[in-house]
Amino acid sequence: MAAEENGKLTRGNVVSLAMLAVLFLYMYALNYFMPLHRDDYEYALVWNTLERLSSWPDVFRSLYLHYFQHGGRMVDFFVLDGFLLVGKQLFNPFNALLYVALMVLIYWHSQREVTLRFNPYILGLIIVFCWFGLPDWALTNVWMTGACVYLFTAVLIFAFLLPYHFDHIGRPLIGDSWPAAAGMFLGGVAASWTIENTAATMILVAAGLTWLAWRRGALKMWMASGLAGSLLGFALLVAAPGNFVRYGKGPKFFIHFTNQLAAGLEIFLGVIPVVIFLVLAWRVVKADYARQQGLTAPALPARGGFDIWGAVRIALALVMLASLLNGQFAAKWAANGLINNVAVPLGVATAHLKAQLTRTLSGLEEVVLYLLIMTQLAKFAFRRLALRKADAGALLAQVKRREVLATCPVCLFAAVCVALAVINNLAMLPAPTFPGRAGYGSVVFLIIGAASLLTLPAVKAAVLGDGAKRRFVAAVAALMFFPMAAAALYQYSIIHREDGARMAYLERRVAEGATYVELEPLSVKNRVLRHVYFVELNNSVSKGGLIRYYGLKDIKVRE
Question: What is the per-residue pLDDT across 42-56, written as a single tens digit (0 to 9) for each?
Answer without folding.
Answer: 999 999 999 999 999
